[in-house]
């Protein structure tokens, strides 16, 4: 299972790198290059949703480095000359990492839902129903008391 997660992360990061390189060479002489980093956040969200948090974070960092080195002058250097372009890269990095953390699907919750079947729900006897209802009421009252 660890190999599969690692492969997913590398595949997602590779997708970010390839798209960042393609957009860099496509928009190098465009007037839209200063907002390209913000538009690239859509790619980061998609990669995070498909490949996970690690791929989203690593893809964000790699794409930021690619944009800094190959899109904004001076080329082939991580230094960015113009202040607005530097700020857009910094915001891309910060927002990309935060979004990658927030958007990632909760794999434990998904696994629990996959294990649960509606056949189990139908097979529960009426005797166990009051116990379930009381635990549900306790959980709701606990949540309400935590909000206050």
What does this structure look like?
The protein is an all-alpha fold. It has one domain (2-107). 76% of the residues lie in helices and 0% in strands. The protein is built from eight helices and no strands. It has helices at residues 2-26, 36-39, 41-51, 53-70, 83-103, 107-115, 118-123, 129-147. Helix 1 runs parallel beside helix 4 (53-70), helix 3 (41-51) packs parallel to helix 5 and helix 4 (53-70) packs antiparallel against helix 5. The longest helix is centred in the N-terminal third of the chain and has 25 residues, at 2-26. The protein is elongated and about 65 Å long. It starts with a helix and ends with a helix. Mean pLDDT is 78; it is low at 124-128.
Q: Sum up the overall morphology in one term.
A: elongated
DSSP strand count: 0
**Range of strand content:** under 5%
Total domain units: 1
Tell me the layout of helices and strands.
Blueprint: H1 2-26, H2 36-39, H3 41-51, H4 53-70, H5 83-103, H6 107-115, H7 118-123, H8 129-147
């Amino acid at each position: 299972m660890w190999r599969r997660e690692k492969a997913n992360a590398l595949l997602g990061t590779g997708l970010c790198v390839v798209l960042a390189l393609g957009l860099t060479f496509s928009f190098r002489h465009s007037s839209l290059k200063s907002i390209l980093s913000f538009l690239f956040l859509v790619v980061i969200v998609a990669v995070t949703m498909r490949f996970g948090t690690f791929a989203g974070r690593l893809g964000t960092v790699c794409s930021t480095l690619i944009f800094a080195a190959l899109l904004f002058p001076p080329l082939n250097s991580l230094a960015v000359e113009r202040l607005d372009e530097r700020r857009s890269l910094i915001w891309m990095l910060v927002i990309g990492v935060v979004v990658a953390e927030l958007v990632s699907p909760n794999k434990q919750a998904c696994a629990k839902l996959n294990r649960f079947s509606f056949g189990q729900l139908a097979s529960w006897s009426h005797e166990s129903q009051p116990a379930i209802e009381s635990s549900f009421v306790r959980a709701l009252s606990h949540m309400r008391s935590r909000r206050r």
